[in-house]
Amino acid sequence: MNQEIKRKWLEDLRSGEYKQGIGCLCIEASEQDTEDEWCCLGVLTDQYAKAHSISWERAPGAASRVMWILAEYALLPTAVMEWAELDSSNPMILGVGELNPFQYGQDKIIIPNYLVDANDSLKLTFSQIADLIEWAF
Fold it and tell me: pLDDT at position 96, please?
């Protein structure tokens, strides 16, 4: 992975600027929920969008608040994957299935297979996901 992009991604995940969500890269804010919700991959994609002056749009045919960019709403668009020098649109974390070296309180967590699993299935916080990214990439 490109180390400068990684550094900025980790910074963004830990910043508190992005509200975490699940299921897609970005879910647009509603009247009741005034902040957009982001998957960890959406945060990286937003970094790309800002660097390349590209705007998010509502995804056609998807739920009304689902946003997309570069024809993708669930995984990294190819352009983002290539820019970040990642080998997959859903990056695999090293050490799959092993106990990782991170401990949160009394609990150790199992390393998920993919970053989307860390965000959507295990519901790790952005800070925990940033720790995994820092360790794995």
Answer: 45
